[in-house]
Amino acid sequence: MDKGDILVAPYTDPAWTPLFPLAAGLVTEVGGLMTHGAVVAREYGIPAVVGVDNATGIVQDGQRIRVDGTQGFVVLLE
Fold first, then answer.
1. Is residue 36 annotated as a catalytic residue, yes or no?
2. What is the pLDDT of residues 52-77, one digit of tens each?
3. I need a surface site. Which of 5, 16, 43, 58 has the fewest CB within 10 A?
4. Which of these is catalytic: 26, 35, 36, 49?
């Protein structure tokens, strides 16, 4: 993962924490407001959207996306 990438994962746990300083955003398939990814993303000030069904199947490596953590949606960009 490079600085400025958006981390798209099935879930996060404490082992993922070293990646958060690099991330420009977070998308996970599992989670809620108090899950690890959402809490750590908030502490780092990065946008996060959790609970996105099949995110790792839909978003391809290298694909550009927009993460709106305030409204809770992800947009696939061309």
1. yes
2. 999 999 999 999 999 999 999 999 99
3. 43
4. 36
